[in-house]
UniProtKB/TrEMBL annotation, chain A:
<keyword id="KW-0547">Nucleotide-binding</keyword>
<comment type="similarity">
    <text>Belongs to the ABC transporter superfamily.</text>
</comment>
<keyword id="KW-0029">Amino-acid transport</keyword>
<dbReference type="InterPro" id="IPR030679">
    <property type="entry name" value="ABC_ATPase_HisP-typ"/>
</dbReference>
<feature type="domain" description="ABC transporter">
    <location>
        <begin position="6"/>
        <end position="240"/>
    </location>
</feature>
<dbReference type="GO" id="GO:0005524">
    <property type="term" value="F:ATP binding"/>
</dbReference>
<keyword id="KW-1003">Cell membrane</keyword>
<dbReference type="InterPro" id="IPR003593">
    <property type="entry name" value="AAA+_ATPase"/>
</dbReference>
<keyword id="KW-0472">Membrane</keyword>
TrEMBL record, chain B:
<keyword id="KW-1003">Cell membrane</keyword>
<feature type="domain" description="ABC transmembrane type-1">
    <location>
        <begin position="70"/>
        <end position="265"/>
    </location>
</feature>
<dbReference type="InterPro" id="IPR035906">
    <property type="entry name" value="MetI-like_sf"/>
</dbReference>
<keyword id="KW-0029">Amino-acid transport</keyword>
<keyword id="KW-0813">Transport</keyword>
<feature type="transmembrane region" description="Helical">
    <location>
        <begin position="247"/>
        <end position="265"/>
    </location>
</feature>
<keyword id="KW-0472">Membrane</keyword>
<protein>
    <submittedName>
        <fullName>Amino acid ABC transporter permease</fullName>
    </submittedName>
</protein>
<dbReference type="GO" id="GO:0022857">
    <property type="term" value="F:transmembrane transporter activity"/>
</dbReference>
Length: 260, 277
């Protein structure tokens, strides 16, 4: 990887007194799939949200596809068109049907005409296996279907990078698989992806690299075999043992750890 | 042991719960019927009918009360509503602005115009403004004046309703739109405001009903014969005929509009609840 697609340097972010990111450096190469794992409150979601500037960092540099997002004069709307974002809560537009959810951003932001936007929408709905739901409203879809529509909505904008913020955490367990399958397909097509997740199986099988965060810093990173299979750091081991075998974990008090 | 265990013993003394409930409900019906009868017998229906229900007088009000008065009332109301809605959106957005002075200005506007009686605003718009700016003409004469006065009154209420509606749209909607590359203004117009209006449709329609009634204040602006609305029309005719029947008929005309409107609001309310979740 000569020039990284995403480059984060010395990132600091606080919400009031809460210092969430304490100096994060991270590079993601083109076509690389990076899973970010860590306990809640570790700052992993905040880091992801900084990468498309939904959160503005106090300090540090973020470069995506050669454009520095932290430059105060950057055209942030233009950069965000190249970065797809998938949220935990899907955030489909409830007043629009599925096709309109996909076409409205294309028409308003990319200025595509109606026919072209509808063609792209249909292609991307087929890609996530929901061609038959083109005219359903979000409220009539299951969580897994809504999340796949949300992924299709991002893809319809033709992004170079996709960010996933705990995309399966709000889903019933039996619906997780469909969403992960779509993400796996994307990864195989060579999409650059940054995924905040608790799905260790997905991280192990799909990720090129796993990043473990705790306390606002990157504690350990490497291939899935290294980080998940054979963690070096004590905090990583502790976290993994709790998440891989939650029934065996002991009660512990984690003060002031809250995350959206 | 048997004599100490009282848990499953039925109450012996006093009334049971069911008997008490029946008695209480019976008493409420008796009071209600007594009140209605007392009212019906004590009122002097003959004189009331004489003063308020003279059929020949009612007949001579038609068709003008519909083609002129009701039409004007509706026209005043709708024009005031449109002005209020546009101004209300502007004030609501100012209230949510990141620019301090906009927020303060919007706050002051809302406090003043929500606190003043509509009548005073009508006098201010109808008399004060022409005095201060003699060269300024309201477009559309009285119609313009009423639209401005009613608009100023309703904008203050609507701004607060619209602001609440915008804030009721989940934050994720704005974030999703921004992530897709929408500018803040475009996200507001295409994504947030349409959803906000779905939420506030019922209170906005209530505001329309209030405006409908407030349009009667036009009579303080001094209107020509053709510009009269329901209240003025009824009032004028009541004084020429020395009988109050026209007032009753005018009142019925208001209900002719407000009752179906209330019905429509309830329908929309239950429908929008289905649509959103």
């Amino acid at each position: 990887m000569s020039t990284p697609e995403i480059r984060v340097e010395g990132l600091h972010k606080s919400f009031g007194d809460n210092h969430v990111l304490r100096g994060v450096d991270l590079e993601i190469g083109q076509g690389e799939v990076v899973c970010v794992i860590g306990p809640s409150g570790s700052g992993k979601s905040t880091l992801l949200r900084c990468v498309n500037l939904l959160e503005e960092p106090q300090q540090g540099t973020i470069v995506v596809g050669g454009t520095e997002l932290t430059d105060p004069d950057v055209d942030i709307d233009a950069v965000r068109r190249r970065i797809g974002m998938v949220f935990q809560q899907f955030n489909l537009f409830p007043h629009l049907d599925v096709t309109e959810n996909l076409t409205l951003p294309q028409r308003r932001v990319l200025r595509r005409d109606k026919a072209a936007a509808e063609k792209v929408a249909a292609e991307n709905l087929a890609r996530v296996g929901l061609a038959d739901k083109a005219h359903a409203y979000p409220s009539s879809l299951s969580g897994g279907q809504q999340q796949r529509v949300a992924i299709a909505r991002s893809l319809a904008m033709g992004p170079e990078v996709m960010l996933f913020d705990e995309p399966t955490s709000a889903l019933d367990p039996e619906l997780v698989g469909d969403v992960l399958a779509v993400m796996r397909g994307l990864a195989e097509e060579g999409m650059t992806m940054m995924v905040v997740t608790h799905e260790m199986t997905f991280a192990r099988e799909v990720a090129d690299r796993v990043v473990f965060m705790d306390g606002g810093v990157i504690v350990e990173q490497g291939t899935p075999e290294e980080v998940i299979g054979n963690p070096k750091n004590e905090r990583t081991r502790h976290f993994l043992s709790r998440i891989l075998d939650p029934a065996m974990a002991e009660v512990e008090d984690v003060p002031g750890k809250t995350e959206k | 042991m048997a004599d100490t265990d009282t848990r499953i013993q039925p109450r012996k003394k006093g009334l049971t719960r069911r008997q008490r409930r029946r008695l209480s409900r019976g008493a409420q019906y008796v009071v209600f019927v007594a009140a209605v009868l007392a009212f019906a017998f004590s009122a002097d229906w003959g004189r009331l009918k004489n003063q308020f229900a003279q059929l020949p007088i009612a007949e001579q009000m038609f068709p003008d009360i519909i083609t002129l008065a009701l039409k004007n009332t509706v026209l005043y109301t709708l024009s005031g509503f449109v002005v209020g809605l546009v101004l209300g959106i502007v004030v609501a957005l100012m209230r949510l602005s990141s620019v301090g002075p906009y927020r303060w200005l919007a706050g002051i506007y809302i406090e003043i115009f929500r606190g003043l009686p509509a009548l005073l605003i009508f006098i201010f718009v109808g008399v004060g403004v022409p005095l201060a700016f003699p060269d300024v003409q309201y477009p559309g004469g009285t119609y313009g004046k009423v639209a401005v006065a009613l608009g100023l009154v309703s904008a203050a209420y609507m701004a607060e309703t619209i602001r609440a509606g915008i804030q009721a749209v989940p934050k994720g909607q704005m974030e999703a739109a921004r992530s897709l590359g929408f500018s803040p203004a475009r996200a507001m117009i295409s994504i947030v405001i349409p959803q906000a209006f779905r939420i506030i449709l019922p209170p906005l329609t209530n505001e329309l009903v209030l405006l409908f009634k407030d349009s009667s204040l036009v009579l303080f602006l001094g209107v020509t014969l053709e510009e009269r609305e329901l209240s003025k029309f009824g009032n004028d005719l009541a004084s020429t005929t020395a009988n109050s029947t026209p007032i009753l008929v005018a009142g019925l005309c208001y209900l002719l509009v407000t009752i179906p409107l209330g019905f429509v609001v309830r329908r929309m309310e239950s429908k929008s609840q289905e649509a959103i979740r």
